C-alpha cells in the first residue's frame, strides 16, 4: 500500500470561460480540491493503486468536499483526522502558458499541526511506500512528526520513503518559516528518502544557480536511490548513485494549466514502482533499466494528461492505457 501524508488545500482557480469580470473586480474563480498529498493520493487511486491518505481535515464549508474527492478516486480516507483549525486555501494565478503561481491563506490551518501521536493512531500497518512533501513537510510544528516517521521507516527499511520539497517561496520565507529552517528540514528529509522528486523551481530556491544535471547527481549521492528533477516541458532528469544520468522526454500536449502536474508524476512513478514489486530499498537499487524506463514513461504520461485539464485532475487507469496505446 502507498501511504500519503501531508496537506489538503482548496485551490481557487481562475475560470477562463467566465472572463476577467467587470473593470476593477477580480476574475471569477472555481474552488477545486488540491494540496500535494491529496493530489498524489487521488492520482494514485485513479490509477488503481491501494492508497491511504493521512491528512488533517480542517473546518469550513469546503472541508467535506476534500474528503469526498479522495473517496471518489478510491482513496482510503480512514486516516483523515478531523481537526478544529480551518482548511488551507490557495489562490491560483495562471500565466499565458498555463504555468501556475500561488497566493496562500494558511495561517493557523489544520495541515501544519500534526503530532506523532496523531500519526501513530491512524498509521496503516501494511504501508509499503510513504510519500511526504510540500508545505507540511517543512513547516513547524507538524514537520517534526513527519520527519520522525520518514527517518524511522528509512532506518528500519520497513517501507520506501518518497519526498517532494514542492517549495512555495512566500511560505518558505514567511509564515513562521525562515529559509535556513526550511533548507535544514529538507536536508534531513532528503537524507531519509529513497526517492526524491524535485522541480527546477525548487532548485532555484534551494540552491540558486545550480546546474540541474550536477544537482541531480549530487542529490543522489546524499542518500536517495532515485532522484527525479523536472523542468517544465524539458526532459526529466533521473539520477541514481554511481550511474550515468538518464533523461526522459516529456510528452507534448495542449496544456490547459500545470496545477498538480508534479504530483501526478510522483503518483505515476510510485504506482509503477509498486506494480513492479519495487517496495524495498534493495529492490529499488537493483531495478533494471527496462523496468525503470517503463515506469518513468508512464509517470511522464500521467503528468501530461493532467495538464490537459483544469486544475489537479489526473487520469484514470483507462485513460492512461488509452493514451499509451495512442502513442
UniProtKB/TrEMBL annotation:
Keywords: ATP-binding, Kinase, Nucleotide-binding, Transferase
Superkingdom of origin: Bacteria
UniProt signal peptide: none
Keyword Transferase annotated: yes
Entry GO MF terms: ATP binding; kinase activity
UniProt key word Repeat: no
Domain Carbohydrate kinase PfkB per the UniProt entry, residue ranges: 2-315
Cross-referenced InterPro entries: Carboh/pur_kinase_PfkB_CS, PfkB_Carbo_kinase, PfkB_dom, Ribokinase-like
Residues annotated as transmembrane: none
Gene3D superfamilies (alphabetical): 3.40.1190.20
Family in the record: Belongs to the carbohydrate kinase PfkB family.
Protein name per UniProt: Carbohydrate kinase
Taxonomic source organism: Goekera deserti
Amino acid at each position: 500500500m502507498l501511504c500519503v501524508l501531508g496537506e489538503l488545500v482548496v485551490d481557487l482557480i481562475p475560470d477562463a470561460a467566465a472572463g476577467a469580470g467587470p473593470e476593477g473586480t477580480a476574475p471569477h474563480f472555481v474552488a477545486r480540491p488540491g494540496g500535494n498529498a491529496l493530489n498524489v493520493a487521488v492520482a494514485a487511486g485513479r490509477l488503481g493503486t491501494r492508497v491511504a491518505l493521512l491528512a488533517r481535515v480542517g473546518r469550513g464549508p469546503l472541508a467535506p468536499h476534500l474528503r469526498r474527492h479522495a473517496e471518489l478516486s478510491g482513496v482510503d480516507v480512514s486516516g483523515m483526522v478531523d481537526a478544529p483549525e480551518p482548511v488551507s486555501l490557495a489562490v491560483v494565478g495562471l500565466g499565458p502558458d498555463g504555468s501556475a503561481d500561488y497566493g496562500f491563506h494558511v495561517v493557523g490551518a489544520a495541515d501544519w499541526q500534526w503530532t506523532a501521536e496523531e500519526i501513530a493512531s491512524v498509521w496503516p500497518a501494511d504501508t509499503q511506500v510513504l510519500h511526504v512533501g510540500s508545505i507540511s513537510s517543512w513547516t513547524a510544528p507538524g514537520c517534526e512528526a513527519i520527519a520522525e516517521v520518514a527517518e524511522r521507516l528509512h532506518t528500519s527499511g520497513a517501507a520506501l520513503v518518497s519526498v517532494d520539497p514542492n517549495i512555495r517561496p512566500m511560505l518558505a520565507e514567511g509564515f513562521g518559516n525562515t529559509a535556513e529552517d526550511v533548507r535544514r528540514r529538507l536536508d534531513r528529509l532528503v537524507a531519509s528518502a529513497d526517492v526524491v522528486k524535485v522541480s527546477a523551481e525548487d532548485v532555484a530556491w534551494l540552491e540558486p544557480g545550480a546546474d540541474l544535471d550536477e544537482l541531480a547527481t549530487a542529490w543522489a549521492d546524499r542518500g536517495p536511490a532515485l532522484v527525479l528533477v523536472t523542468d517544465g516541458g524539458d526532459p526529466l532528469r533521473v539520477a541514481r548513485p554511481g550511474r550515468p544520468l538518464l533523461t526522459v522526454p516529456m510528452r507534448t500536449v495542449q496544456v490547459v494549466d500545470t496545477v498538480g502536474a508534479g504530483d501526478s508524476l510522483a503518483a505515476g512513478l510510485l504506482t509503477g514502482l509498486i506494480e513492479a514489486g519495487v517496495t524495498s530499498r534493495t529492490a529499488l537499487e537493483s531495478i533494471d533499466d527496462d523496468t525503470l524506463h517503463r515506469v518513468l514513461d508512464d509517470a511522464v504520461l500521467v503528468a501530461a494528461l493532467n495538464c490537459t485539464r483544469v486544475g489537479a485532475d489526473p487520469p484514470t487507469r483507462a485513460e492512461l492505457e488509452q493514451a499509451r496505446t495512442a502513442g
